[in-house]
Amino acid sequence: MPEYAIEQPPVVGLPVAGSDALFPVRRVYCIGRNYAAHTVEMGGDPDREPPFFFQKNPDNLDATGEFPYPDKSSDVHHEVELSVMLKSGGTNISIDKALDHVYGYALSIDMTRRDLQGEAKQLRRPWEIGKAFERSGPVGPIHPASEIGHPDHGRIALTVNGEPRQEGDLNQMIWKVPEMISYLSDYFELAPGDVIMSGTPAGVGPVERGDVMEVTCDGLGSMTVTVI
């Protein structure tokens, strides 16, 4: 075993449904504007243009069921998403082989400092300050594809304090999961432990401290996250 100059940072491990095993996270890729209605909502063109991605950090993903409202922001939004966990990777993966690399799927929320993201957009700067902050990716248990298959349709929704906010269907994704994997592999070498957050339907909106978000998706159950 190598000797490190400082204490080795811990590996981020996410729970797997029905198992004591943890899924180790390597990288987190997030696709932007992957539902037509949300693209319009954010001022974009819903035509099928090449996808774009940004990243969160592995330790942004959090399975505790709590989201700490961040400092330095007064406009934090929820974005419900299906996350895709990879068990293998590579480069130049073909679309017809892409799903062979998927370990499983999980409910997740891309929490966004919308005010800071907006400032970054205006200044033509990267979005990390609005997207890749501490515990900005609440995530539920991972459901292995060997048990649930590969969901390509089904209702996905989010409520805040019981009030409906977001609702869509996985079949409304502009870029489907195999296409996202294939596209990413043309630009990055994908590997086991990579996570792809697959975009959000329309209805994104702000949360406040004390709010309770509930996420549901057909085949994946539900997840509750409290804003603290």
From TrEMBL:
Signal peptide positions on this chain: none
Domain Fumarylacetoacetase-like C-terminal positions: 28-227
The keyword Metal-binding appears for this protein: yes
InterPro entries registered for this protein in UniProt: Fumarylacetoacetase-like_C, Fumarylacetoacetase_C_sf
Protein's UniProt keywords contain Hydrolase: yes
Stated name of the protein: Fumarylpyruvate hydrolase
Coiled coil (UniProt feature): none
Species classification: Bacteria, Pseudomonadati, Pseudomonadota, Alphaproteobacteria, Rhodobacterales
MF terms (GO), sorted A to Z: acetylpyruvate hydrolase activity; metal ion binding
Keywords per UniProt: Hydrolase, Metal-binding, Pyruvate
